[in-house]
Design brief:
Order of helices and strands: EEHEEEHEEEEEEEHEEEHEEEE
CATH architecture of the largest domain: Roll
CATH superfamily of the largest domain: Diaminopimelate Epimerase, Chain A, domain 1
Number of strands: 19
CATH topology of the largest domain: Diaminopimelate Epimerase, Chain A, domain 1
CATH class of the largest domain: Alpha Beta
Largest sheet: 19 strands, mixed
Strand content: 35-45%
Distance between the termini: 21 Å
Radius of gyration: 18 Å
Helix content: 10-25%
Length: 276
């Protein structure tokens, strides 16, 4: 298949995406290279990733997600929330409770105007702590998988002052995380609130938000006894998310992520958009 030229730009709590109404399972290497070129800021449209939405089984919709580097990823929480809102507003599903087929599994959503809640599949409990080093960081970090691998690191002091561009790359490739990881730096700000900054693999830089990252951070913070659920999670974009969950039968159950998802504009790509 060839990459479509018609797209919609969407944003979910600080992450922005190119959404194509097409089946991403047919993309070839050249299409993936073009996604990376389209995701460049300044030289092209710019995005944290690309969403491909198509008909799924029955009344479901199928979602393929590609990182800004053109690599296929199993899940992106904020991208899935944006796709859910698009599916509802465009009438691709009946009602306001779409079910999305993702690389991780079936994700159920609830769309209330611009607020979208995801109900996530059961999650394994966080892993054993791993050692980390860096100015302003606690000596241990906690790994957890929320559709994609995450490493949660708590900070001593002001999160806003943390030099993430320097500290994050070695942690993103931590020896304990063979597939690499998104790295979430977390500051506890209240009895039920945290602040999170995330360095994302596939983007290879800090993003304004990360939906699965705030879920990972909230779960770890609650299980460490630092906050209680539901947890309000502030991000670098200024947008706040709410994360709630329970623990049952040795796993994380009923994890829910709620936040803003909005449609910014639609457009048509010219060949200059992927010009090198």
């Amino acid at each position: 298949m060839s990459l479509p030229t018609r797209f919609v730009k969407m944003a979910g709590g600080g992450n922005d995406f190119l959404l194509f109404e097409a089946d991403g399972r047919g993309l070839g290497e050249e299409d993936r290279r073009r996604i990376a070129l389209l995701s460049r800021r300044g030289l092209s449209v710019g995005a944290d990733g690309a969403l491909f939405l198509s008909q799924g089984d029955g009344s479901r919709v199928h979602l393929d997600y590609f990182n800004a580097d053109g690599g296929l990823a199993s899940f992106c929480a904020n991208g899935t929330r944006c796709a859910a809102r698009y599916a509802v507003t465009r009438g691709l599903v009946d009602g306001h409770d779409p079910v999305l087929e993702t690389g991780w599994g079936l994700i159920r959503a609830r769309v209330d105007e611009s607020n979208v809640t995801l109900r996530l599949p059961g999650l394994a409990l966080p892993g054993a702590p791993v050692g980390v080093a860096g100015e302003g960081l606690t000596p241990e970090a906690i790994p957890i998988n929320v559709g994609v691998p995450h490493l949660v690191v708590f900070v001593n002091g002001d999160l806003a002052e943390l030099p993430i561009a320097r500290l994050a790359p070695p942690l993103r490739r931590h020896p304990a995380m063979p597939d690499g990881a998104n790295v979430n730096f977390v500051e506890v700000t209240g009895p039920a609130s945290i602040r999170v900054r995330t360095y994302e693999r596939g983007v290879e830089g800090e993003t304004l938000a990360c939906g699965s990252g705030v879920v990972a951070s909230a779960i770890v913070a609650v299980r460490q006894g630092l906050v209680s659920a539901p947890v309000v999670c502030a991000t670098r974009s200024g947008a706040a998310f709410t994360v709630d969950f329970s623990e049952r039968d040795g796993q994380i159950a009923d994890a829910r992520l709620t936040g803003d998802a909005r449609e910014i504009y639609s457009g048509e790509l010219s060949s200059d958009a992927w010009k090198e």
